[in-house]
Amino acid sequence: QVQLVESGGGLVQAGGSLSISCSFSGRTFSMYIIGWFRQAPGEEREFTAAINPSDNKLYGDSVKGRFSISRDNSNNTVWLQMNSVKPEDTAVYYCAAQLLIGWSVGRALDARSYPYWGQGAQVTVSA
Q1: Predicted confidence band of residue 37 (pLDDT cuts 50, 70, 90)
Q2: What pLDDT, in 10s, does the model give residues 18-35?
Q3: What is the DSSP annotation of 83-115?
Q4: Whose CA is closest to 64, among 91, 46, 78, 39?
Q5: I want to staple 76 with a disulfide (CB 3.0 to 4.6 A). Which of 20, 29, 72, 100 is the partner?
Q6: CA 59: distance to chain centroid?
């Protein structure tokens, strides 16, 4: 069974930077696409970024150019580097995993394609 654990959330000032990580265990990490999604209070869960084992990356429009996703296949970890953060980036950030069965942008963007989820990490951006 895949297990995902996020860490590194917290409080950051607008314009600052924060990095959160996702630790993967239970299966072969290099066979999984890892996605980051975020959910603000009262909002729908929003796609943020995704990375496949070959390092192909996708970003949501609201974070493109500011956030960066990376993975370390030797340490089973994915990072989300958040730069130039804004108050509207405040949310619970979840990492999620799906088995790689071909690379489909549509599946990578869709939360319903991910059967495994972490518990979430709160990120709060102060104005």
Answers
A1: very high
A2: 999 999 999 999 999 999
A3: -S--GGG-EEEEEEEEE-SS--HHHHH-GGG--
A4: 46
A5: 29
A6: 10
